[in-house]
Design goal:
single chain, mainly alpha, 20 helices, 72% helix, globular
């Protein structure tokens, strides 16, 4: 009987119930909320579901992300090896290649002025950087936090890894992906506050056709120019443009299909679960995380507002030919931000179709956030 009792006692003490803290239970609840938002509400489920599940796993079984030095047999936990790919910037770069393979840069090529709105929306990054410094973050940590303002999760992970801020990577990535998912909730009030009904009702002319030669030259020219000026952007901009060249060249359908589907989804699984697993209660429930979440929101609001305000200025300059709403799409949440511009415009006039026009600033924002990350990396490395 004593053997059975000892065996049952050992078994019970090996269950998670004897090892979990109140913080773990809080994080498990947060993971369940994220799963609800992703599954029930449809908020970026491809991102939130794996992130939330990784969060769930690590707060039940912390050793799943333990390093080899922390284990008795010298073998790390499963998600530790996934997370290494984040730290080495491999997964964010592959995500960019997949995004490039799926993205049509035609609206940006047809309307180059979109570059300005995409650039303006990056203002939130630099505003948040200054605020982070004031809140006591060092320069590298401030840069890693501020990039959340670009609404670009892979770029946030890339910069945090390159600047050696892996301790902040979990909160930064969760904040970035959360705000990407909440674009339809956060942006419309800002857009309506800064524009008039007349401005929101502006109908834009049809975009000009873009030739195949222009589409092929675009990724090549952008890579050469941007990477010559800021070589530190090569991993992100280079992979983005490589993926787009797969799409537009028309001679590598298999590579384009793989990059935009199978490879993309594999990388999303690895990146999402490993990012979620970096949010243990010990790493996430602290004052620094609260600062990161608040700064990320401020950066996102500033970026949205800057894009809309530049859109208003261009509206005046072009004598009403540009709807300021498309400026909000300059944050790089593709294509969610462009859809929000379309939705807000359609609320004023159901016959107004802004989606393709908004895709110009939207894809410019992807390039812009990568350039901003490269600039910060170049200055701080």
């Amino acid at each position: 009987m004593s053997y059975i009792a000892d065996t049952l006692g050992n078994f019970l003490h090996q269950t998670a119930f004897f090892n979990l803290t109140y913080g773990n239970f809080i994080m498990i609840a947060v993971a369940c909320v994220f799963l609800y938002l992703g599954i029930r509400k449809g908020f970026e489920p491809l991102l939130l579901v794996p992130i939330a599940f990784g969060m769930l796993l690590v707060n039940i079984y912390p050793d799943i992300i333990a390093s080899p030095a922390e284990t008795s047999n010298g073998v790390g936990g499963l998600l530790y090896y996934f997370f290494q790919l984040d730290e080495w910037s491999i997964l964010p770069s592959l995500i960019f290649m997949g995004v490039g393979a799926m993205t049509d840069f035609g609206p940006l090529i047809a309307n180059p002025i979109s570059f300005l709105m995409g650039a303006a929306a990056q203002f939130g990054i630099f505003a948040a950087y200054a605020m982070a410094i004031l809140l006591g973050f060092n320069d590298k940590a401030a840069a890693a936090v501020s990039i959340i303002g670009g609404a670009d999760g892979p770029t946030s992970i890339f910069l945090a890894g390159k600047l050696g801020q892996t301790g902040l990577m979990g909160p930064i990535a969760v904040a970035a992906y959360s705000y990407m998912a909440l674009v339809p909730i956060i942006q419309p009030p800002i857009m309506k506050l800064l524009t008039t009904k007349k401005e929101r009702s502006i109908k834009m002319g049809q975009l000009r056709p873009v030739s195949k030669l222009e589409r092929i030259l675009f990724p090549i020219v952008v890579t050469i120019i941007v990477c010559l000026i800021l070589p530190t952007t090569a991993p992100l901009v280079g992979m983005l443009m490589l993926g787009n060249l797969f799409r537009e060249s028309g001679v590598v359908h298999q590579l384009q299909e793989t990059a935009s589907n199978a490879l993309m989804y594999i990388v999303v699984i690895l990146l999402g679960t490993s990012v979620g697993a970096s949010t243990s209660a010990e790493a996430f429930l602290n004052a620094t995380t609260i600062k990161i979440v608040v700064l990320g929101l401020i950066a996102f609001i500033f970026g949205t507002a800057a894009g809309v305000l530049l859109g208003k200025l261009l509206c005046v300059i072009t004598k009403g030919k540009i709807n300021p709403l498309i400026g909000s799409a300059g944050v790089s949440a593709v294509p969610m931000a462009a859809r929000v511009s379309q939705k807000v415009g359609a609320e004023e006039d159901p016959t107004n179709f802004l989606l393709m026009h908004a895709m110009g600033p939207n894809v410019a924002g992807v390039i812009g956030s990568a350039v901003a990350a490269g600039a910060l990396l170049g200055f701080l490395s």
